[in-house]
Amino acid sequence: MNECCFECNKKLEGDEIAIYRRLVNRGATKYLCIDCLSKHFRCTRTLILERIEHFKEIGCTLFCK
Ligand SMILES: [Zn+2]
Asked: Which residue, 1, 6, 31, 40, is the most exposed by fewest CB within 10 angstroms?
Protein backbone atom coordinates (compact mmCIF):
# COMPACT_ATOMS: atom_id res chain seq x y z
CA MET A 1 0.00 0.00 0.00
CA ASN A 2 1.56 3.27 -1.04
CA GLU A 3 -1.24 5.82 -0.83
CA CYS A 4 -1.07 9.27 0.73
CA CYS A 5 -3.76 11.49 2.24
CA PHE A 6 -4.91 13.96 -0.44
CA GLU A 7 -5.29 16.67 2.18
CA CYS A 8 -2.07 16.56 4.24
CA ASN A 9 -0.01 14.07 2.19
CA LYS A 10 0.63 11.74 5.14
CA LYS A 11 1.35 8.12 4.20
CA LEU A 12 -1.78 6.06 4.85
CA GLU A 13 -2.31 2.83 6.78
CA GLY A 14 -4.54 0.12 5.32
CA ASP A 15 -7.15 0.86 7.99
CA GLU A 16 -7.32 4.52 6.98
CA ILE A 17 -8.03 3.58 3.39
CA ALA A 18 -10.62 1.01 4.49
CA ILE A 19 -12.52 3.37 6.79
CA TYR A 20 -12.56 6.06 4.10
CA ARG A 21 -14.06 3.57 1.68
CA ARG A 22 -16.54 2.39 4.30
CA LEU A 23 -17.70 5.85 5.41
CA VAL A 24 -17.24 8.01 2.33
CA ASN A 25 -17.02 6.17 -0.96
CA ARG A 26 -16.53 2.49 -1.60
CA GLY A 27 -14.97 3.13 -5.01
CA ALA A 28 -12.62 5.89 -3.87
CA THR A 29 -9.17 6.07 -5.42
CA LYS A 30 -7.85 8.85 -3.16
CA TYR A 31 -8.23 8.94 0.59
CA LEU A 32 -7.99 10.95 3.78
CA CYS A 33 -5.96 10.04 6.85
CA ILE A 34 -7.81 9.65 10.17
CA ASP A 35 -7.00 13.21 11.25
CA CYS A 36 -8.32 14.77 8.03
CA LEU A 37 -11.29 12.39 8.01
CA SER A 38 -12.29 13.45 11.52
CA LYS A 39 -12.12 17.10 10.40
CA HIS A 40 -14.22 16.20 7.37
CA PHE A 41 -16.92 14.70 9.61
CA ARG A 42 -16.35 17.28 12.38
CA CYS A 43 -15.90 14.46 14.88
CA THR A 44 -13.02 13.24 17.02
CA ARG A 45 -10.19 11.00 15.92
CA THR A 46 -11.25 8.58 18.68
CA LEU A 47 -14.67 8.18 17.10
CA ILE A 48 -13.09 7.20 13.78
CA LEU A 49 -10.86 4.66 15.57
CA GLU A 50 -13.93 3.23 17.30
CA ARG A 51 -15.67 2.89 13.94
CA ILE A 52 -12.65 1.02 12.57
CA GLU A 53 -12.76 -1.41 15.52
CA HIS A 54 -16.50 -1.82 15.05
CA PHE A 55 -16.23 -2.68 11.35
CA LYS A 56 -13.40 -5.12 12.09
CA GLU A 57 -15.55 -6.79 14.74
CA ILE A 58 -18.48 -7.28 12.40
CA GLY A 59 -16.06 -8.69 9.85
CA CYS A 60 -16.30 -5.99 7.18
CA THR A 61 -14.37 -7.25 4.18
CA LEU A 62 -12.79 -3.84 3.50
CA PHE A 63 -10.61 -4.33 6.57
CA CYS A 64 -7.84 -6.85 6.64
CA LYS A 65 -7.31 -8.55 9.98
ZN1 LIG B 1 -4.49 13.90 6.19
From this structure: 1
Q: Ligand 1 mean position to 22 CA, how many Å?
A: 17
Q: Is 3 left (phi over 0), alpha (psi -120 to 50) or beta?
A: beta
Q: What are phi and psi of 3, to 5 degrees?
A: -100, 150
Residue 53 has pLDDT above 60, yes or no: yes
Q: Cα 32 to the chain's mean position, in Å?
A: 7
| Cα 19 to middle of ligand 1, angstroms | 13
Please say whether the beta carbons of 45 and 52 come within 8 A. no
Give me Rg for the CA atoms of the chain: 11
Query: Measured in angstroms, how far is the CA atom of residue 20 from the centroid of ligand 1?
Result: 11
Predicted confidence at residue 47, as pLDDT, reads 98
